[in-house]
Amino acid sequence: MARSPSDVAFTPAVKAVQDAHGSRDQYARLERGRGWATAITPELAEFVAGLDAFFLATASAAGRPYVQHRGGPRGFLRVLDERRLAFADFGGNRQYISVGNLSENPRAFLFLLDHEHARRIKLWGSARVVDDDPALLERLRDPAYPAAVERAIVFTLEAWDVNCPQHIPRRVRADEVAPVVTELRARVAELEHRLRAAGLDPGGSRPAH
Are 77 and 50 in contact (CB under 8 A)? Predict the structure, then answer.
């Protein structure tokens, strides 16, 4: 039987649970049709370029999972080609759990989440640590971002899928909201000043005493 890209997640055990809960036929039809993507599309590349954070999952040789939040300047997760993404690994608390896991188990997973537009994308593949490629490190470096780049992590894609948008809280970046808040505060201060000049109380528009 031909292997489907979604088999990276839909193991026999998972398919058995899907069958028990009545969703296996739905996913079997998907597998027979277009199925999950195995290459980075322009739409995925555009989504990646807008991110300033994501989650990287690795596991030890014994299968102990570890999920790490990775953050940086917008677009620090870069598309190298249709199968590879990479990002600069900045200095942190020096536990090196992800780096250690990848040294003995290359399997990895990226969870991309956009709170503002309620979208999430799941990517399965493998990853490797690169610390001896100055050209790649320079390509991933952002001169405007102060953190030191210790190494690069290159992720090779096997399959990806768009998750459903249910239950994603809508949030926006603080730096995007800040100009609007500043403008509103200035407008409020201006209106309060006018009220006081007219002898009114800004708190309730009553005559000021």
Answer: no
pLDDT tens for each residue of the chain, 209 residues long: 458 999 999 999 999 999 999 999 999 998 988 789 999 999 999 999 999 999 999 999 999 999 999 999 999 999 999 999 999 998 878 899 999 999 999 999 999 998 777 789 999 999 999 999 999 999 999 999 988 889 999 999 999 999 777 766 667 777 778 888 889 999 998 988 888 898 888 876 565 55
**φ and ψ of 43, to 5 deg:** -65, -40
Where in the chain are the domains? 1-36, 37-163, 172-209
Is the pTM here over 0.85, yes or no?
no
Choose the CATH number for 37-163 among 3.40.50.1240, 2.30.110.10, 2.60.120.10, 1.10.3730.10. 2.30.110.10
